[in-house]
Amino acid sequence: MNLPTLPGNNLYAFVAILGMLLVASGVYYPYVQMQQRISDIYELDAQAKKIELTINQMINNNVSTDSMVSFKTSIIDFMKDKNKFDAKKQQAGLSVLGGLISVLVGIVMFLFGVIRWYSKVQKPEDISRLKSIGS
User: Fold this and answer.
1) Rg of the chain, C-alpha, whole Å
2) Using an 8 Å Cβ cutoff, are 115 and 3 in contact?
3) Looking at the 3D structure of the chain, how many domains does it have?
4) Residue 1 forms part of a structural domain
5) Do the Cβ atoms of 30 and 95 come closer than 8 Å?
6) What is the distance between the alpha carbons of residues 102 and 16, in angstroms, rounded to a whole number?
7) 3 part of a folded domain
8) Cβ atoms 109, 22 nearer than 8 A
9) Which residues lie closer than 8 Å to 15 by C-beta, 6 or more apart?
10) How far is CA 27 from CA 6, 40, 124, in A?
């Protein structure tokens, strides 16, 4: 019974390409996470400015109970959003760590694939071609 052999050329090329994909995803995913956190910061800043404006209006004018209730709900919403942001900030830190690990593993896989491909596939082909040219 003949067992099939693995095609070495394709296997090493696959490992090298997979390594490149890991490097690309390790760079892209944390970048997207950071962009989302920056967007969240702008939203929180806008809410904080709205609360500050409401406080200034309350100081300058007579304060009604309706405006106090509205102000209280806006502060509660702001605090909920801030707590969500803090949780997302921790997740973003983990995504950066995961991205760094992905980049390192991808570089190792890429180098392994390229080096093994060269030593197992390309170098013997070069030697056989040189021999065929020389004879």
Assistant:
1) 29
2) no
3) 1
4) no
5) yes
6) 14
7) no
8) yes
9) 109, 110, 112, 113, 116
10) 32, 21, 35
The answer to whether residue 87 is domain-embedded is yes
Q: What is the model's pTM?
A: 0.63
Q: Is 47 exposed, middle or buried (0-12, 13-18, 19+ CB in 10 A)?
A: middle
pLDDT tens for each residue of the chain, 135 residues long? 566 665 556 788 888 889 999 999 988 988 888 888 778 778 777 777 777 777 777 767 766 666 677 777 777 777 777 777 777 777 777 788 888 999 999 999 999 999 988 888 888 888 888 888 876
- Burial class of residue 40 (count of CB atoms within 10 Å of its CB; 0-12, 13-18, 19+): middle
The structure tokens listed for 25 are: 């995803």
Domain presence at residue 16: yes
Q: Which two tokens stand for residue 46?
A: 């806008």
Instruction: Tell me the two tokens of residue 78.
Output: 């702001």
Q: For residue 48, what are the domain limits?
A: 9-134
- Per the listing, tokens 């056989």 go with 128
